[in-house]
Amino acid sequence: MSEAKSAKRTTYTGEQRIPGERDPDVAVVTCALSGVLANRKQCPGIPYTPAEIADEAKRAYDAGAAVVHIHARNDDGSPTFEPAVFAKIKEEVRARCPVLLNFSTGTILEDTSQQETIVKESRPAIAALNMGTMNYSKYSREKKSFAFDMIFPNTYSKIMRMLVAMNEAGVKPELECFDTGHTNGVWPLLDMGLLKPPLQFSFIVGVLGGIPGTVESLQLQTQIARSMPGRPHFEWEVIGISHGHWRMMAAALALGGNVRTGLEDHLYLPNGEMARNNGDLVDVLVRMVRDVGRRPATVDEAREILGLRSDA
Predict the structure, then answer these.
(1) Model-level pTM?
(2) Do the strands 100-103 and 67-70 form a parallel or antiparallel pair, or are they unpaired?
(3) Using alpha carbons only, how large is the chain's radius of gyration in Å?
């Protein structure tokens, strides 16, 4: 790519995108380091402690990721939303690298006070925001039974509380949409002024209860986003869960989207070997980005593309 071409960037003022060129050859690569469910019995590389999570963030950054998505764990691997733990994770990551931080806020509880505190006190660049209620299940074809079967409730009142906290802290909401209704349901929040473009969508595919992992799913989700009242500017990435992960990365890259990998989403390399760490997965994804004629965004480029605050 020529220097002139690579220098073309989109310009932002606050949250609003000024018409300009968003280089389609640039893709933001995110790495989801651990998730909330996977453990070391399933994959020895899953990080638990703040220092381990920060080490994985550094591996992902060194491999080419501009953003890391983080769930906090207790030292025994159990999930936690203690604000002090998230603060410690931020401190440990910042001591190692400048990668952009995306903190999880997902909870099955109606009480979001801990999540609001994390957003306001730690002020990550981005915070994930689940955009609708759904069945959230995992089924085993071999056992002919469900590994787990739950409801993930995300009412508008819950979503709006989190949006208020994010807006007050200057944190960018990552709109996590597991199905088409989640994507379509964004427009009232735009109408109320709680969301402002450019929007950042994550289209999660492959979760039972949500949309399947197909090219048609991505095309439908992006079309819904484009058809919203006011036609808001937006960026989107795909999150491919478990089987089909790498195919969905390829599909997103071909369709012009951003991409996410990591031990939260998939434990295996394309050849079927288990990844040793998150760096292994990002190495593969960055190679895919380059193989289709695109390149991974730097941290500064990702900050500009996603419309993040300058000190994020």
Answers:
(1) 0.92
(2) parallel
(3) 18
Tell me the C-alpha distance between 251 and 212, whole Å: 13
AA letter at 217: S
Tokens 């593309």 identify what position?
Answer: 305
- What's the fold here for domain 25-306? TIM Barrel (3.20.20)
Q: Which residues pair with 261 in a beta bridge?
A: 31
CA 82 to chain centre: 21
| Overall average pLDDT of the 78-107 stretch | 98
Q: Is 221 helix (H, G, I), strand (E, B) or coil?
A: helix
Q: Which residues have CB under 8 Å from 247's CB, separation 6+?
A: 213, 240
- How far apart (Å, rounded) are the C-alpha atoms in residues 177 and 175? 6
Among 145, 164, 168, CA closest to 156 = 164
Among residues 204, 152, 147, 149, which one has the least CA distance to residue 175? 204
Domain ranges of the chain: 25-306
Sign of CA dihedral 303, 45, 244, 78: negative
Pairing of strands 234-240, 258-261: parallel
User: pLDDT, tens digit, for every residue of 169-224?
Assistant: 999 999 999 999 999 999 999 999 999 999 999 999 999 999 999 999 999 999 99
